[in-house]
Amino acid sequence: MKTYDIAAIGGDGIGPEVIEAGIEVLQALAKADGGLGFRFERFPWSSQLYLDEGHYIPPGGLERLRTFDAIFFGAVGSRKVPDHVSLWGLRLPICQGFDQYANVRPARVLPGVKSPLANGKDIDWVVIRENSEGEYAGMGGRSHRGLPIEVGTEVAVFTRAGVERIHRFAFELARKRARRHLTLVTKSNAQRFGMVMWDEIFLEVAKDYPDVEHDRELVDAMTTRMVLKPATIDVMVATNLHADILSDLAAALSGSLGIAPTANLNPERAFPSMFEPIHGSAFDIAGKGIANPVATFWTAAMMLEHLGEMVASTRLMKAVEKVTANGMHTPDLGGGATTAQVTGAVIAAL
Ligand code: ATP
């Protein structure tokens, strides 16, 4: 029997609720499968820990995390801690420390789910987000604080190595899909340096993938194309900031933020990869037992795929789709079901 060691970090808000639901479903899957096992270790790294002890990740925490096969992550963000502190305290040190440079966000409308788009059934996309540099590289500073001449800079950093590897990853992923189509999204009309370099390197890498069709779109035009012509899109690759925004749009167009999954991959597997729902800690519904766990289940299916457990991954997604098709929906999808009810239904379907 193959047993995987998974680090579970629930984090804040609804994070722990959906991660516990995900663990329940994965354990049920292991039981139904027979040849598969999981050992979960829970890490209480959260904004509460930060408020109590002054850190999200305790000393030595990343080294400990490194020994796991994968990281199953909920959400970080609290009303009591500024967002930039919580993000840079927990999620970004893991993504950047473990060189999880490829962020993969599939979007499609699951059976039984209603898209706000009339032609929502045409959505079958993968958004690939550069996850290690760009606008979130952490470069910048503030001078003359508090004075009328105060200045703040936020510098986007694009390296040839960083850009080339994400483009290669995107082409490899697009190559494995039926349509084999990749759209490059930048803003190289207004931003003349890093963005133009993105375009140039993309076209260089494209020469190695003659079997993948490609096109280009400016990020603002891409938002309208996603809404008006969803069928023209298959895989898209964009910078850290642009893809962050586009993938939230993709999630909303697919029915709800409560459905959309993400993988933060270190494709070379030198470090563990991290799997998380796209949504944040959603304080408005935390503690009410009504968070949609589907994004976390889909996230778990992506984790299984990364671990090489394709059969188990497909089995899990089929069970999830059976439940969404039957109309067992949490309130974000217009239903009245609780997290526990959806979780129970998925386990029954398994
Ligand atoms: P953060 O600042 O941590 O990103 P947030 O609360 O500002 O979090 P999200 O958590 O991303 O933003 O979600 C925005 C809204 O979408 C939430 O307030 C909630 O109503 C809804 N939502 C998000 N995730 C879910 C979910 N899993 N189930 C149900 N509703 C959700």
Structure description:
- 40% of the residues lie in helices and 23% in strands.
- The protein has 350 residues and is an alpha/beta fold.
- The chain has helices spanning 15-33, 47-53, 61-65, 83-97, 160-175, 194-206, 219-228, 240-253, 294-306, 310-325, 339-349; strands at residues 2-11, 36-42, 70-75, 102-108, 124-130, 134-143, 151-157, 181-186, 213-218, 235-238, 261-265, 273-277.
- It contains eleven helices and twelve strands.
- The chain has two domains: 1-101 and 260-350, Isopropylmalate Dehydrogenase; 115-142 and 152-254, 3-Layer(aba) Sandwich (Isopropylmalate Dehydrogenase), CATH 3.40.718.
**Rounded mean pLDDT score:** 96
Count up the helices. Answer: 11
Major β-sheet profile? 10 strands, mixed
User: How far apart, in Å, are the first and last alpha carbons?
Assistant: 19 Å
What Rg, in angstroms, do the CA atoms define?
20 Å
Considering the protein shown, what is the CATH homologous superfamily of the largest domain? Isopropylmalate Dehydrogenase
Structural shape: globular
State the CATH topology of the largest domain: Isopropylmalate Dehydrogenase
Query: What's the CATH first level of the largest domain?
Result: Alpha Beta
Helicity range? 25-40%
Low-confidence stretches: none
What's the number of structural domains?
Answer: 2
Give the cofactors and ligands: adenosine-5'-triphosphate
